[in-house]
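S1.2 Input.
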Amino acid sequence: MGSDRHEQVLDELGAAIASGELAPGAVLRSEELQERFGASRTVAREVVRVLETMGLTSSRRRVGVTVREPAEWNHYDPRLIRWQLDGADRAAALRTLTELRSAVEPCAARFAALRATPEERGRIRALAVHLQRTARARDLDTFLAHDVAFHDLLLTASRNPMFAQLSSVVAEVLAGRTEHGLMPDEPQPEAVALHVEVAEAVALSDPARAERAMRDIVEQAREEIAAAVSSNLGD
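S1.3 Output.
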């Protein structure tokens, strides 16, 4: 129960900071946090500690907990990404995240084609087949699970540990698109075909082909997100 309450307060306070409801420079004392969120002193202290590790707040004796400037936040933290995607400024968050994917994933696919083990090449191909099957079945939840695994494996197979650590970032973007209705009811056949293209290129050790196909995947995702956001605003 204590752990659940900790996560609930963390999500509530973190989302308030991420959305700007608690603006940079805002100061909260421990007593205020306890009263505002109905939390015990221990839970409030643990939540503040987590927010400090994320760079969202800082604490000073006799001052309290101060919200830091966004430039000081750890924007790669999956929890912060989730809070931003859940907030009103979702479109801006998706734009910056897609720009990050555009810069990283095509290069990761290139290096995966050069460096993946035989086992990894086989698993990437198998995941592409699973994506085809679940897309046709319109099973978006299972499709998402395979899609996350596909991109995670490519980042890992690049053998660049800095790329690999972005796996949780990409996973949050993919999950956020599904959870917020920014995916088509049935994944686009072109997008699925491009995943198959990446898998084949990696299997055949063709780095240029893998990079090109992955760049097309991210660009198509950007166009789908823009269209979905525009449609939602129109509603």
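S1.4 Remarks. The two ends are 39 Å apart (CA to CA).
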